[in-house]
Automatic annotation (TrEMBL):
DNA polymerase that functions in several pathways of DNA repair. Involved in base excision repair (BER) responsible for repair of lesions that give rise to abasic (AP) sites in DNA. Also contributes to DNA double-strand break repair by non-homologous end joining and homologous recombination. Has both template-dependent and template-independent (terminal transferase) DNA polymerase activities. Has also a 5'-deoxyribose-5-phosphate lyase (dRP lyase) activity. Repair polymerase that plays a key role in base-excision repair. During this process, the damaged base is excised by specific DNA glycosylases, the DNA backbone is nicked at the abasic site by an apurinic/apyrimidic (AP) endonuclease, and POLB removes 5'-deoxyribose-phosphate from the preincised AP site acting as a 5'-deoxyribose-phosphate lyase (5'-dRP lyase); through its DNA polymerase activity, it adds one nucleotide to the 3' end of the arising single-nucleotide gap. It is found in: Cytoplasm; Nucleus. Keywords: Cytoplasm, DNA damage, DNA repair, DNA replication, DNA synthesis, DNA-binding, DNA-directed DNA polymerase, Lyase, Magnesium, Metal-binding, Methylation, Nucleotidyltransferase, Nucleus, Sodium, Transferase, Ubl conjugation. This is DNA polymerase. Its cofactor is Mg(2+). Its EC number is 2.7.7.7. The keyword Ubl conjugation applies. It comes from Chilo suppressalis. It is an enzyme of class 2 (transferase).
Length: 332
């Protein structure tokens, strides 16, 4: 989901906050995903560091913090602010584009396009709904609800509801809620559900049954939990759910995963995104290529081989010679 802050009041929270703000500016306004990743990585390294950083040079010793970020830490320690952020705060176009990207379905490119049409506020969006697609219209309709974090207890209830609904249809369904919830966070931005069924295997799947394995669950959830469909295909549902009348509407994604890809998908969708990058880099060092579908050995020619059979998340770590990390230890 869109709003992210790994800082949560730890010793270096103020550094994290400005790094996250710089990251979002680079992604949303400059469309520079490399700088976005660099700032996010630095923020998560500082969030996990259990000692207050007292200088840029001290920060630079940490993996993921280079010269430029070190100097920003010095500037912040010396003046209590950052010139670069002050400038961004006074830049009307940057502020507008940042705001527009907070609407679910509006990315940096669409936000810039809307801004060029003179659209800068939520009110402007409401007056220009003809410029928005179905997803963006739902994002606009629930703008305030989707900005609200989802308490863990509410996701627990939603998890139970999805599991019960799936099991009634067919006891062979397996449901796992991944994302920040699985990492043990006390609140989440959205709900990332994975489901699988033994009838669906990447290699020997029965095409006839596959087609309805996701649709049947979504249809059953339409009776009470799911309130809007953003999009639904054979393997991916994106939509909106509401547990109880007086609770906010929540973003819910459900992905149908073939059984032989389930643990790679579970690892990927549990995240965090920064952790996934670290894990993929480590896989490459060990001669593997890892993604949301599979773990494959990379031969000397650089061509990935057949996927390694995987029957647990632990096995993925084992293959890569990487000490197992429980989901709650994957927040960086
Ligand atoms: N993911 C990733 N890279 C991306 C997007 C997502 O690796 N660019 C993976 C890791 C995320 C997971 O998918 O943890 C779910 O994506 P979310 O955006 O829902 O992120 P979280 O669930 O971690 O956080 P939030 O509480 O904001 O939803
Ligand atoms: Mn998500
Ligand atoms: Mg999520």
């Amino acid at each position: 989901s869109k709003r992210k802050n790994p800082c949560e009041g730890k010793g270096n929270a103020d550094f994290c906050e400005f790094l996250i703000e710089l990251a979002e500016y680079e992604r949303n306004v400059n469309r520079n995903i490399h700088k976005y990743n660099a700032y996010r990585k630095a923020a998560s390294v500082l969030a996990a560091h259990h000692k207050r950083i007292e200088s840029g040079d001290e920060a630079k010793k940490l993996n993921g913090i280079g010269e430029k970020i070190a100097r920003k830490i010095d500037e912040y320690l010396l003046t209590g602010k950052l010139k670069k952020l002050e400038n961004i705060h006074h830049d009307a176009s940057a502020q507008a584009i940042n705001l527009l990207t907070r609407v679910s379905g509006i990315g940096p490119v669409k936000a810039a396009e809307l801004y060029r049409c003179g659209i800068a506020t939520i009110e402007d969006l409401n007056k220009n709904q003809d410029k928005l697609n179905h997803h963006q219209l739902i994002g606009l309709k629930y703008f305030e609800d989707f900005e609200k974090k989802i308490p863990r207890s509410e996701i627990k209830d939603i998890e139970n509801k999805i599991k019960t609904t799936a099991k009634v249809l067919d006891p062979e369904y397996t449901v796992t809620i991944c994302g920040s919830y699985r990492r043990g966070k006390s609140e989440s931005g959205d709900i990332d559900a994975l489901i699988t069924h033994p009838a669906l295997c990447g290699y020997k799947g029965n095409k006839k049954n596959e087609e309805k394995l996701l649709q049947n669950v979504v249809d059953a959830l339409n009776n009470g939990l799911v309130t809007e469909v953003i999009s639904v295909g054979e393997t991916k549902f994106m939509g909106v759910c509401r547990l109880l009348q007086d609770l906010p509407a929540r973003r819910l994604d459900i992905r149908l995963i073939p059984t032989d890809q389930y643990y790679c998908a579970m690892l990927y969708f549990t995240g965090s995104d920064v952790f996934n990058k670290t894990m993929r880099a480590h896989a490459l060092e060990k001669g593997f290529t890892l993604n949301e579908y599979s773990l494959r050995p990379v031969g000397v020619t650089g061509v990935p081989g057949e996927p390694v059979p995987i029957s647990s998340e632990e096995e993925i770590f084992d293959y890569m010679d990487y000490p197992y990390k429980a989901p709650q230890d994957r927040n960086m």
